[in-house]
């Protein structure tokens, strides 16, 4: 397991994907619970809702990245994931869709539901989870990819809350 952070303006005891979209209303990086390797990034996400008065940073444990258990933006999809997906789907995935985790995820959404909207993204995440993929990964900083990662974890039961801190919005906006 690895330690990551999640920012929210809601206090809760466990993650629930039924609340997806209640944060900033978007699933830009796919369906799942968004976590970051940077505490300061979680602080910023916690304060996104301008009407909120309470802000929290959750310190969480998430599954460790291992070969074949994640997809990543701008990286080829691991051959084991492709093999499992093709076996379960019953058809060959085009080479072009295998070259980037984002394209692969969108391809699955479109094939499973005909769309790449929220329902398509959800179906893709559930499918990926069913073949052992725990998340999609993207850099914390696209210009310095070694600076850490953000992740969308597909199954909320794979995240354990270690600590919750209430934060003062003013303390990190100075």
Key attributes of the depicted protein:
174 residues, alpha+beta, four-stranded mixed sheet, three-stranded antiparallel sheet, elongated
Task: State the gist of this model.
The chain is α+β, with helices and mostly antiparallel strands. The protein has helices at residues 39-46, 79-89, 101-113, 118-130; strands at 2-8, 33-36, 55-62, 70-72, 135-139, 149-153, 160-167.
What can you see in these coordinates?
A four-stranded mixed β-sheet has the order 2-6-5-4. Strands 1-3-7 form a three-stranded antiparallel β-sheet. The termini are far apart. Helix 3 (101-113) crosses helix 4. It is an alpha+beta fold and 174 residues long. It has helices at 39-46, 79-89, 101-113, 118-130; strands at 2-8, 33-36, 55-62, 70-72, 135-139, 149-153, 160-167.
Walk me through the topology.
Layout: E1 2-8, E2 33-36, H1 39-46, E3 55-62, E4 70-72, H2 79-89, H3 101-113, H4 118-130, E5 135-139, E6 149-153, E7 160-167
Parallel strand pairs: 4-5
Antiparallel strand pairs: 1-3, 2-6, 3-7, 5-6
């Amino acid at each position: 397991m690895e330690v990551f952070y999640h920012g929210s303006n809601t206090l809760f005891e466990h993650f629930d994907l039924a609340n997806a979209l209640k944060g900033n209303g978007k699933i830009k990086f796919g369906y799942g619970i968004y976590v970051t390797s940077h505490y300061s990034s979680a602080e910023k996400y916690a304060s996104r809702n301008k009407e909120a008065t309470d802000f929290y940073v959750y310190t969480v444990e998430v599954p460790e990245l291992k070969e074949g258990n994640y997809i990543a933006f701008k990286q080829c999809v691991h051959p084991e994931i492709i093999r499992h997906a093709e076996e379960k789907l019953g058809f060959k995935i085009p080479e072009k869709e295998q070259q980037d985790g984002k394209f692969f995820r969108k391809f699955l959404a479109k094939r499973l539901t005909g769309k790449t909207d929220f329902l398509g993204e959800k179906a893709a995440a559930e499918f990926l989870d069913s073949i052992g993929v725990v998340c999609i990964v993207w850099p914390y900083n696209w210009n310095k990819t070694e600076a850490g990662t953000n992740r969308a974890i597909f199954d909320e039961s794979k995240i354990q809350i270690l600590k919750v801190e209430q934060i003062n919005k003013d303390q990190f906006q100075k």
